[in-house]
Write a structure and sequence with these properties.
With 92 residues, the chain is mainly alpha-helical. It has 4 helices and no strands. Helices cover 77% and strands 0% of the residues. The chain starts with 11 loop residues before the first helix and ends with a helix.
Length: 92
């Protein structure tokens, strides 16, 4: 696999050959999807949220800036919880 997250078709041959169960593949897909969401958030979405917060502060819209910071905090917490939840898969 060389550091790549398997996509939905990755286990098809292994399931057909009986090397892995469908349950194992579905579990793998679930955590892969979650980790992909975390990656996308930290790669692109988080910087967009930070830019919105900066813009709100620049416009002196303190309520919007504080709401943005609260949203950023909640999203960060959500993403870090996913990392913690699947930490056993990440270092295997």
């Amino acid at each position: 696999m060389k550091g790549e997250l398997p996509d939905r078709g990755y286990y098809d041959e292994d399931i057909a050959a009986g090397h892995v169960s469908e349950g194992y593949a579905k579990n793998s897909y679930a955590w892969n999807d979650e980790i992909r969401k975390v990656y996308a958030y930290f790669k692109t979405e988080r910087s967009a949220l930070e830019a919105e917060i900066d813009e709100a502060f620049d416009c002196n819209d303190i309520k919007r800036a504080i709401a943005g910071e609260s949203d950023l905090y909640e999203r960060d917490t959500e993403m870090f919880n996913v990392i913690i939840k699947y930490r056993g898969y990440l270092w295997t």
